[in-house]
Amino acid sequence: MANRYPSATSESRPVQWLLIAICLAFMALFLVLPLYAVFSEALRQGLGAFFSSLQSPDAQSAIRLTLTVAVIAVPLNVVFGICAAWAIAKYEFKGKALLITLIDLPFSISPVIAGLVYVLLFGAGSFLGPWLKSYGIEVLFAVPGIVLATIFVTFPFVARELIPLMQDQGTGDEEAALSLGASGWQTFMRVTLPNIRWGLLYGVLLCNARAMGEFGAVAVVSGKIRGQTTTMPLQVEMLYNEYNATAAFALASLLALLALVTLVLKSLLEWRFSDELAATNGGH
Amino acid sequence: MAHVTTGSSGWRWRQPSVIPGFGMTFGFTLVYFSLIVLIPLAALVVRSAGLGLDGFLRYASDARVIGALRVSFVTALIAASVNVVFGTLIAWVLVRYRFPGRRLFDAIVDLPFALPTAVAGIALTAIYAPNGSIGALLAPLGIRVAYTPLGIVVAMIFIGLPFVVRTVQPILDEVNKEVEEAAATLGANRFQIVWRVILPGLTPAILTGFALAFARAVGEYGSIIFIAGNIPFVSEIAPLLIVIRLEEFNYVGAAVIGTLMLGIAFMMLLVINLIQAWSRKRFGYGQ
Amino acid sequence: MEVRIDKVRKEFDRFAALHDVSLDIRSGELIALLGPSGSGKTTLLRLIAGLERPTNGKIFFGEEDASDKTVQERNIGFVFQHYALFRHMTVLENISFGLKVRPKETRPASADIRRKALELLDFVQLSGLDKRYPNQLSGGQRQRVALARALAIEPRVLLLDEPFGALDAQVRRELRRWLREVHDRTGHTTVFVTHDQEEALELADRLCVMSQGRIEQVGTPDEVYDRPTSPFVFNFIGESSELAVTAENKELWIGGRAIGLPSDGFEGQGRLFFRPHDVDLVEGDAALAGVVISSRRVGGTRRVELAIGGDAQKIEIDLPFDHPAGERSRLAFRPKRWRLFPTAEVHQKVP
């Protein structure tokens, strides 16, 4: 429909192309270029240097720790997310709106504060830290602290995806299943879970990306003991500060790859199953 | 646990339901939330409160603390403002126009959510350092980005952009074409339609996006510290000062800054909720 | 303002939504564009408004060729089915909008704009609601605001697209009467689109019945109802019964029996249309006769289903409610008014 006639509901073609060009330039500059820089810096000294830096014991241990933390933190937040969404979406009770706001709270808080609160809770001068230490349990500057800080910052991801989704779906399916004689557990496994699977996967995806990539909160509680309490992002920082840019970017490129995979899967889910995801996918 | 009601009539905390599991799921939610979020946050507030008002103010009025908060605030304000302009424009282009690669760019908007902040930090530094691909272009013009407050703004733009885009996009998607046509039949030209009809309708979403981007920028740490230069009073941000205080084992000093920032975060949360409530009440929509 | 639509054609991606439509709209009349969905009625309205561009043909406002005018230049008032009010503006701001966006030279002083908007608010019987937001109004009130907003720019033509489509039946009837009053008081040339025949028959001076991108018939409600010119209009407006007949020797026949109706010069296969309530019961052979299949009372009449002729074509007629039409009993009747269409034409026109 090519006409020279100004439409009431859209801009002229040249204006459209100008605006598109501005946006694409802005996004190329601020989003695409950094991503490109990660890979180009990582491969600056060739594939050999790239792979050998990834095979160093410190890098290997950082990768292991990051995976370990994610394997603990993500499932815990999944269980929490499902419980919270079930309680909030399937029942009517007073204070629900407040509870939803509170669940989102960790998103509004600086990751550094997420680390700080655990330092204050378990560090020297606290009540809990020395007490646990007397039983030989180290939280701060050890893996438990890293896990706790990671759980804190990834806390809302699954819940905030599932709550609106399950609220939309209502209680009809569950009531039907119960009326047909299913137990509560059967109802959840056979009716609710299939209804929310894509939304759940979506939440897990985002939760995992953040869990593996978290820096600020983990930096505060880790103590950065090389080979023991350094996750991948922390190892990236240490290498970078030691002017070992290639090794830093090599490890960073693994994290960037994770980000890309996350984005691709997330987009696929949005395109294929948009009607089975929560309506509001904005934010975080 | 499942029947928390007060008497047979009157106030009811929870509506009865045939669906089982409320006690278990609600109980677990509260316990988990308390252990992970509430008690640790309380520890922070308690530690600050232990100082008393005078002590708290003494720590809070430390020149370096005020300097760091100022740097964080000013840079976050600038970055959020830039993001409002470009985020709204990007949302507009993605919703309204069809062009090759649109879906790809739509997906890329979320990159800052997915890319670990430390990775973003070193990547931005590599680009904007005086020998980096853009830094080298700007250096002859006398513009230095990396290791200056400008670098902080750049990092904050990076991490804040998706907040604006993803808040405005769904609302813009819902803008009814008929409303634009109505304005046109009343004689409004395209600029008037955009400026007086569409954008005012997006105001709550834009404000929310601004507040989200601002809150995130103020709290951001990982992507900033590499590019900032971290010079006290100039490019030292508040979260970094918390880390420095902790490394000095000055837990009280860290707790005070943390409490101040927590207060800011709560204020932003309140502001966002007020915007949404106002928008829902007046215009009948919100998020 | 007269509006003349001259052989207008509109294609969307090669699909023709309107086929060379011509229509003269008289100054000051209230005309309804009536048709099922997909008939092109809304497209025609949007073409008049300038919200769409015709692929071919011209649209005249009076003597002036408006075809190349933009929607902004046409100075029309348009009311949308879903109101399309500006939700971030108060009622008063909504009504004033059209005047406020005028260029400086033609824009009234702001005090005048305000006074005029308040007058209009009064005119649509919503005084006192000027500071409300659309969200705080009922559907009927919103549509009144939408009309006031359209009237504020003193439009040359008022166009309404299914204006009552989103309202409850009760409010709809109320607003229908009110719109008629408004029209009688302001005298605007008004075109409204509807798929509701009752609404069109009650409200309009003239109807323009459309189907599949073509105009089937234009006329007063009485003309269209009493003398439909096509099988489509017969079916679409009011109730109709339809029978396959053969025309031979100046008479109509079903299954080898004459039914007592003249063929008016037509010979061959045809279809007979009549209104179920527009029949006389008769005695004797030269009539439409059939066996009662079912009989039920509908309000003040009795609706009887008959099987007619050898191939038992089923039709319905209305009888007085106390008529003792028992099942399997035999009835003979003759339509008071009827029309015969050649079979070919029927198949061509009825979707």
Descriptive overview:
The complex is a heterotrimer of chains A (284), B (287) and C (351). Chain A is mostly helical and 284 residues long. Helix content of chain A is 75%, strand content 0%. The model of chain A is unreliable at 280-284 (pLDDT under 50). Chain B is an all-alpha fold and 287 residues long. The longest helix of chain B has 34 residues, at 63-96. The two termini of chain B are 32 Å apart. Chain C is an alpha+beta fold and 351 residues long. Chain C folds into two domains: 3-234, P-loop containing nucleotide triphosphate hydrolases (Rossmann fold); 239-349, Nucleic acid-binding proteins (OB fold (Dihydrolipoamide Acetyltransferase, E2P)). In chain C, a hairpin with a 2-residue loop joins β4 and β5 (64-65). In chain C, α3 (91-100) crosses α4. Chain C is elongated, with a radius of gyration of 25 Å. The model of chain C has no long low-confidence stretch (mean pLDDT 90). At the B-C interface, α9 and α10 of B face α2, β6 and α5 of C. Chain A: It is found in: Cell inner membrane. Chain A: The chain crosses the membrane at residues 15-39, 65-89, 109-132, 139-159, 243-265. Chain A: Residues 63-270 form the ABC transmembrane type-1 domain.
Name the descriptors.
heterotrimer; A: 284 residues; MetI-like fold; disordered C terminus; B: 287 residues; 13 helices
Low-confidence stretches of chain C: none
> Which segments of chain B are poorly predicted (pLDDT under 50) over 5 or more consecutive residues?
1-7
What is the distance, rounded to the nearest whole angstrom, between the alpha carbons of the first and last residues of chain B? Answer: 32 Å
Shape of chain B: globular
Strand order of the largest sheet of chain C: 6-7-8-3-9-10
Share of helical residues of chain C? 25-40%
| CATH superfamily annotation of the largest domain in chain C | P-loop containing nucleotide triphosphate hydrolases
Helix content of chain B: over 70%
**Mean pLDDT of chain B, rounded to whole units?**
91
Extended strand count of chain C: 20
What's the Cα radius of gyration of chain C? 25 Å
Roughly how many Å apart are the termini of chain C? Answer: 35 Å
Strand content of chain B: under 5%
Largest contact between protein chains?
Answer: A-B, 107 and 102 residues
- Summarize the main sheet of chain B: none
Give me the Rg of chain B, rounded.
23 Å
DSSP, total strands of chain B: 0
Please identify the structural class of chain B as seen in this structure.
Answer: mainly alpha
